Every structure is written in structure tokens, then in C-alpha cells.
Amino acid sequence: MRFPAPRRLHAASTPADAVHLTVHTHTMTKKDKKSFNQSLDEWKLFIFNPTTREFLERTAKSWGLILLFYLVFHGFLAALFSFTMWAMLQTLNDKVLKYHDQIPTPGLKVFPKPVTALEYSFSLSDSSSYEGYVRDLDNFLRSYDLEEQKNLTACPDGALFEQKGPVYSACQFPCHLLKECSGQNDTEYGYSRGSPCILVKMNRIIGLKPKGQPRITCAPKDECTALITTYPSGGHIDLKYFPYYGKKLYVGYRQPVVAVQASFNLNNTRKEAAFDCIVDGSPNLKNKDDRDKFLG
Asked: pTM of the entire structure?
């Protein structure tokens, strides 16, 4: 089959054949801006389109899928968090701390609470200056009354009171061991006589077993004009109050307390004393640490 030869087409452009394209530009003026009603209609259409039944440009099916996804996603996160917390709680004992060996040596705490830092100041001629101290001591020693300790055990002295449970009994701490600072003979704890009493106790540490004969000793920091006396004698803490088994196991436990009394000479016009108290007498209890000045 033979095809006819293609013909060549010649196009000649003449001035008459020229095409002119004119572009008109128009700048919008304030008069051409959308009216308020037009904008309001567009917003209404954006919020809900009655033609396509779309809310915020999404159909009900689209919104349902989104809500279902986030419901499943956050439900999974909540379930994962709950399972993680449950698994962690299974490793803990409700009655005994798991990590209680991070503080091998207890610190000391004093009563009554000082007004500023660790300084006590009062005037003998103004009873209101020390009535707060007396009130704090009354509140603290109220739990050491014999009536409050009638359900506790009269433990033998001089030995650790170790128990295997499941029932644990705490030892009594007779308040009369504090003698002049017990509040039994002097209800103002020596403050009205210029011989104030301060109570010092060790912080509780579960499982702590001091060696030797632990005691709390107080020594003057500089030239002291007061006589420092501790009760019980020598500031000794009996081993029968150790070890401590925790608040829930050791119901009614009374911490051993040492009373420190400063007595001033009445003829001395300067009645000021500064002293440090430390835990001493036990080789496994530290009382010096550059990183913790309150240790022991």
C-alpha cells in the first residue's frame, strides 16, 4: 500500500495575522473586600456544610475514625502505665522499705523547735519568751507518759531487741530517765530557773543495729560559761531500742531521747552557751562527714 507523500505547510505571518493579548490588572480596593455577611456565611459553611453534611470540613465517618483512633491510642497508653505501676508495686513491701540502707548513720533532731536556726533565746523576767518552748516539750513528751505506753514491752536492758515477727512489740521508754528534764518535777523544764532543757533524739533507720554503747555527747564549741548535763547519765542510749522495724510493724514505738541541760552560774552576767551534740560510742555510726555537716 502506498501512501501519498506528505505536504509541506508554510505559514507566513503578516502584520494582519498578528494576535494581540492584552492583560488588564486590577488592584483590589477597600470597596472590593468581602462584606461581613459574606465572611459570616463562609464561616458558617466551614463549621457545617449542609450540602455535604460536613462539620469542620470532615464527615461524620471521618470524625468517628479519628475519635476511635485516639480512644484506642490513649487507652493503650493508660493500660501500659497501669501495668507498669502494678508491676513495680509488686516488688515493694507495704510494711518495710526496700531501700533503707542508703543512710547508714542517723542524724539528730532537737526539741523544742528553735525559733531561728538552732538558737534558743529567752528572758527569765518574761515568761512569754519561753512558754513556746515549754509547750513544745509538753506536746512531745505526752506520748512518753506511762499511760500511753501501757501496751508496750518492758524490755531487758543492754541488748538488741531483735524479733522475727509476724507480731512485733516495741519497748517502753520511761520518762523518768530524763530526770530534771522529764517535766515531772519541773513543769517548765528549767527555763524559769535559767537552766533550759533541750531534747535530742536520733532519726529512725529501719534495721539499724548499733555496736558498742551508743550515746549522744555534747561539747562546748568555744569557752562555755555553762555546765552541760545529759540525761540519762552520760547520754547513753540503750541497745534495746534497736533495731527499728518500721512504723507499720513497730506500732507504738518510742524513740530513745537524751535530754541536755545547760546550767549557768547566777553570778555570771554572760549567760550564753554554744555546744555541739554528736552520736558517739558506736564504731559503725559515723559522726563526721564533710558532705553532710548534720550527719550524726
From this structure: 0.67
